[in-house]
Amino acid sequence: MSVDQICQVLTAGFSFHRKPYYFSQPEGVKNYLLRLQTDGRCRAKVNGKLTYIESGDLLLYHPTEPYELKIDNEENKLGDVLVESGDYHIFFSGQWVDEWWNKKRRPTLIKVDLTENLLTLFRQIVLEQRRIANPYPEIPSYYMRILCLEIDRLLSEQPTSTQNGYLAFQIKNYIVENASTLFKLEDVASSVGISVSRAVHLFKEAFDTSIMQYTMDVRLNMARERIIFSPMPLEHIAESCGFNSYTYFHRVFRSKYGMAPREFRTIHREQLL
């Protein structure tokens, strides 16, 4: 049996919705499904009921598990009504996947950190599936197996049950959920009911980075995915990812990725051909 039959990626993509969307498959999607929410939020069926899915939520569905997805109008903190939801989604199957799934209990919803490693795995699988000419079709299968094992590692590293650890993860969730808007340290601390100095200390102790640096990383990751996969103008991407000026966005993006946003878009879109 070939590698791609052992673990076969059937379809993979990145979607960004600015209009309402609804999909329902009561009898299951017939194959395994991974869906990673990267932007905005939506609602999906989890344990039999529609549940709000936020940025950083990873959904895992068995082929027989009912699936429902609803993206509709939301009201943000300024009272503006909008639709915004971005996600990676991968349908896959195979003997290796069956064995992996049955090794342990798989929760439908997992809270994850949108790290560079995790996003890169999703992105590479999507890029491989979009290649028009691909003489190495087994490559997505290897990436998929690595992604599944990475999920196992994430499950083993779920948030600590200590009070300080819980507060640190609450802060992280606030940042991920609100990264597309402008906020201050006072807003972050207030969201968990502690002082700014304590919030800064707890976050640094738990994640070895500052609140503002982590916020910047989340915003840049968000912008990078939209640059590659969405048709939005670069100026609009900067604004929608929490940057109050394109000049500043251009500078910090170049500093992190070694090239301007426009050059980054050109290079990565050429890889899709």
TrEMBL record:
Q: Which SUPFAM superfamilies does this chain map to?
A: Homeodomain-like (SSF46689), Regulatory protein AraC (SSF51215)
Membrane-crossing segments per the record:
none
The chain positions of domain HTH araC/xylS-type read 169-267
> Keyword Transcription regulation: yes or no?
yes
**Which UniProt key words apply to this protein?**
DNA-binding, Transcription, Transcription regulation
Query: Which regions form coiled coils?
Result: none
Gene3D superfamilies (UniProt xref): Homeodomain-like, Regulatory protein AraC
Question: By its UniProt entry, which InterPro entries does this protein fall under?
Answer: AraC-bd (IPR003313), Homeodomain-like_sf (IPR009057), HTH-like (IPR037923), HTH_AraC (IPR018060), Tscrpt_reg_AraC-type_HTH (IPR020449)
Keyword DNA damage (UniProt): no
Which top-level group of life is the source organism from? Answer: Bacteria
Q: Please give the name of this protein.
A: Helix-turn-helix transcriptional regulator
